[in-house]
Design a protein that fits this description.
This protein is mainly beta and 368 residues long. Helix content is 8%, strand content 34%. The longest helix is centred in the first third of the chain and has 9 residues. The chain binds the ligand Nc1nc2c(c(=O)[nH]1)N[C@H]1C(S)=C(S)[C@@H](COP(=O)(O)O)O[C@H]1N2 and molybdenum atom (MO).
């Protein structure tokens, strides 16, 4: 049969559209592959690696022998390089505690929702990432003066909306050259796990997760903007299909609560005993912006939470508050404000792709 007669479902996919109501089979399959943090694990300052959320567009590459891995640096550089992980490990080492959040976190609560990975609230985690600053490697390669962007490409490949591509993203040169962007080989003091980018990934502190390219194999310095699918065709805030969109960059201010009390298995609703109970959670923002305040609302009564010690500019901040709970039904939520004055909205902001939902997380609690 001639190729042209084969109706290729990848290059000619069924159109997707917004929907309400039950999750589709495709969304459930994605949710089974890409797990979130268990919200009780928000108790940990540093998320144990196995509890960190996971977002993979395609398959996790099988890297049998890290010794043969090379990171190529090319494009508009004076001296193209191909570095092994061992060579990167011999360069100045830096460990940064960084909270990562998926830009699609909260998509499942947007109405109508875009069919994709249906995150509710749990696509966030904090790790101690160890690597070497990208800046030093770019300087060693010698960035040409006409450089405008730097692109980063993994080795995972697949299709999205008819386009075959390898996962890749870019940063403006000035962002790439900020000393905080790291070429990472360690997570919480251990080698990266396969699903988190072994043997090498990028970490872009303060940005939503898509910027932190896993299985990083090529860096290209460009004299014009990068046109990769994941840069141009997605990760834009849009109000409708014709909207050119605003590129998604740094994280919006947000907070989450460790679910209080005990859950019901099926509904995951919460039950606590009367008396003083400590509510705890985490708050974070993007760009290294500190948290100024966390407020807690219990059936509409606002109180200011106590902030725990800050653990670095890019890591979430713990908070707590004591609640003398009386029997009844409650809706409990927390709201963070950062030092630039950005505050979480009470209502879910609409975005076409369900990106950037930083609305407060409302928890139903029964006190007995
Ligand atoms: N190569 C590659 N890098 C990637 C992705 C991917 O699918 N492929 N997903 C990105 C997205 S959307 C997010 S949110 C983070 C998730 O990182 P984690 O799975 O280590 O938590 O990785 C980013 N880097
Ligand atoms: Mo993501």
């Amino acid at each position: 049969m001639a190729n042209s007669l084969i109706n290729n479902p990848f290059t000619n996919p069924t159109p997707r559209d917004h929907l309400e109501g039950p999750f589709l089979r495709e969304e459930v399959v994605l949710a089974n592959r890409n797990h979130g943090i268990l919200l009780e694990a928000l108790r940990h300052d540093v998320t144990p690696a196995g509890l960190h959320y996971l977002l993979n567009h395609f398959d996790v590459p099988y890297v049998e022998d890290a010794a043969t891995w090379r990171l190529e640096i090319g494009g508009r550089v004076r001296k193209p390089l191909a570095l092994s992980v061992a060579q990167l490990k011999s360069l100045p080492q830096r460990t940064l505690r960084v909270t990562l959040e998926c830009a699609g976190n909260g998509r499942g609560n947007v109405s109508p929702r875009w069919p994709s990975m249906p995150w509710m609230a749990e696509a966030v985690g904090t790790s101690e990432w160890t690597g070497t600053p990208l800046k030093g490697v770019l300087e060693a390669a010698g960035v040409e003066s006409d450089a405008v962007e730097v692109s980063f490409t993994g080795i995972d490949r697949g299709f999205d909306r008819g386009h075959e591509h390898t996962f890749g993203r870019s940063l403006e040169t000035a962002v790439a050259m900020s000393g905080d962007v790291l070429l990472v080989y360690g997570m919480n003091g251990q080698p990266l796990l396969p699903q988190h980018g072994f043997p090498l990934r990028l970490i872009v502190p303060g940005w939503y997760g898509m910027a932190s390219v896993k299985w990083l194999s090529r860096i290209e310095v460009l004299d014009k903007p990068f046109e990769g699918f994941q840069q141009v065709q997605t990760y834009k805030f849009k109000t409708n299909a014709d909207d050119a969109g605003i590129p998604i960059t740094t994280m919006r201010v947000k907070s989450l609560m460790v679910p209080p009390g005990v859950p019901d298995w099926y509904t995951q609703q919460r039950l606590i005993d009367r008396g003083v109970t400590r509510l705890r959670g985490r708050a974070w923002s993007g760009k290294g912006t500190a948290i100024a305040q966390v407020e807690v609302s219990i059936n509409g009564q606002w109180q200011t939470a106590t902030l725990d010690e800050a653990k670095g500019p890019f890591a979430w901040r713990g908070w707590h508050i004591d609640w003398d709970a009386k029997p009844g039904q409650y809706v409990v939520f927390c709201r963070a404000t950062d030092v630039e004055g950005a505050m979480q909205p009470l209502e879910v902001p609409f975005d076409r792709g369900g990106f950037g939902n930083n609305a407060v997380q409302k928890i139903q609690v029964t006190v007995r």
